[in-house]
Structures are given as C-alpha cells and as structure tokens.
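Quick one: structure tokens for this chain, please?
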Amino acid sequence: MEKIFNNTEVAFSLKSDTELERAYFLFKLIESQPLVKIGTAVTNFALKAHLPVEGLIRSTVFDHFCGGINEHDCLSVVDKMYTKGVSSVLDYSVEGKEEEAQFDAALEMILKTVDFAKERMAIPFAVFKPTGFGRIALYEKVGSGAELNEKEKEEWNRVVARFDKVCKIAHDKDVALLIDAEESWMQDAADDLVEEMMRKYNKQRAIVYNTLQMYRWDRLDYLKNLHDRANKDGFFIGMKIVRGAYMEKENARAEDKGYKSPICATKQATDENYDAAIVYMVDNIDKMYIFAGTHNENSSYRLMELCEEKGITKNENRIFFGQLYGMSDNISYNLAEQGYNVAKYLPFGPVRDVMPYLIRRAEENTSVAGQTSRELDLIKKERSRRKL
C-alpha cells in the first residue's frame, strides 16, 4: 500500500507559518517530561490563585488543541477543516464535575451539539462522557453490584434519564452519538447503560456508539460477547476503538489496591489488541459501525488494507477514522485527501474548565513513545519544504 502519511504539504495545508511555528514550540515543550510537570504545576497554581493567565493559555496551548470556548466559537475551525474534507466532532471537554446542576448543564450543552450536528454536514457525530452526566463514584457503585440507598437510586435514575434523553433526540434527528470510555472501575456500569441504549435506538443502524479502550486486555472478548447479544436481540453495534488514555492511573490504582491491572502488559500487546478489534469489526461490518480513533500510522494503514481486501469503498459511511484536533494532521488530512471519512475531535469549553483535558493531552504526548518526536519531525520537514 502507498505510504501517504509523510506528505506534509497536505498535512499542514491549513496552517499558516505562524501556526506552524507555534506547533513546533508546543511540541518541543511537550517533549520534555520535566517541563510538562513544571508547566502543569505552575498553570494549576496560577488558575487557583486567579492570576491573569487565561489569555496566555488561550493563545498557545488552548488554541492549538481546542476549537474555542463555546460551540459557536468552533464554527470557523469546523468550516476551515471541512474545506479539506476533514469533519469535526464537537467535544464539550469539561471534566470532574460532581453536582446535579452541572450534570444538567452538560446535558443541555450536549443537546446543543446534537442540533449543530443535525444542521451541518461537517459535524457527523455528537459526543459525551458518562461522567458528564453523573458522579464517577456512583458509576463505580452501580458497576460493582452494591446495593444503592434510596437517594442513590434516585440519582442513578437521573443519570439513566440523561442518557436516554440525548440518545432519543440523537435517534430522532438521525445524528450518530459517540459515548467516550473512562476509568475501568466505572466502565462496567457505563457499558451496561450504553448497551441498553443500543438495544433501544440501534434497530435500523448504529446511532449510539460505545468506546473500547484496547489497552485493556479484556475488551476484545467484551466486543465478541456484545456481538452475540446484538445478533440475538437484533441491534447494530457502533463502536469507537481507541488505545486508551488513563494507563498510568489504571496501573497505579491496581498496584495500590492489589488487583491485576486491566492494562495489557506491553505496548505491542496493546497494538495487537487494537488491530484485532478492527479486523473483527471489519469482518462483521454487516452488523457494526467503526470509528477508528487512532494516531498510529500502522493501524491506519491496516484498516485501509482491510477495506481494500474486502472491497469496501473509501467513503463507506460505516467506517470513520478519527484523531484529536492539534495532533496527527499527517494522518487526518492525507486520509481525507484520499477520500476516506475522517473526523477530528474538536474540544471546547471555558479555558479554566478545559485545563484538565489539556494537561492530560500534554502528559499523554510525553508518555507515548515516539508520538511527540513524530509530530516534531513532520513539522521540521514542512518548515524546510516551505523555506525551499
């Protein structure tokens, strides 16, 4: 298969020279683990002390990795990317809330993004996080099978109602809905709830998508068992396949509490697990819809090869490639140039509230071997090309 991901002219076609230099500066910072730790600590202190740093954050790391502070703010970015065939997924990236009013506010924001997706071809999906609709401790308790008290039962019923409301409206408006995965200790309850929504709203096609984090060694078996239930009960499976974003936290908790880590023992095992899930889904594409969320070039080539082998057209609506905004433009824009369906996750929200997401992005880039150096190599190549 032709290797397309080295084409930096296509990859950075939307970036001005100034934006390219900012990207180079940011990834040089992210390359240094000590600098990321110091920067994280300083930023957290400045925000807690209400120092006037939001403007600086906005003009640097925020604008590189986020679409804006609200959904309307994102539209110029959405429209710009779509000129190159790259779609957007508006991702309200406010995390760590604990109060009912905050969960209700998140629901209203997600419903707005469903409306946005309905009105714009450039936005083919809406998305939300389970913990946007309820407390992580409540998911954990429900997933463990522990008995809830009356107050907790009422609280859980409200979580279910929020899920059902957004899934029903997405179904009625024919907008596909991605539901992110989070920490393993809360995921069982989320999985059961998402499956319930699939049963209800995926009768004709996949509207509701769950997410599988393939750095977990149990996820391929989960997918196969879900497939059996889907065949039996007559619903389609929508699934976003990713490697995962909470590895250090997962391993630390497993060690602290003395249970076997849910994370694959090696990076290679994770890669093999990811590709096995993609192969399984393509083999069963009559029943499955795939959102392949990956910054891995080899996994992207593998999915392209599978489609070619199976005679699946590049623009098959059951298969999307996905990357995060501000990362892996060499994958996103070159895939789109070739005619594949591609969507960038476009985070948005108030600068202060989105900081946990941005910090996780920086830490993840620092810890994933080769990711930041690959970004830097591509940016350097494009800088040289433009000088010539």
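The chain has a mean pLDDT of 93.
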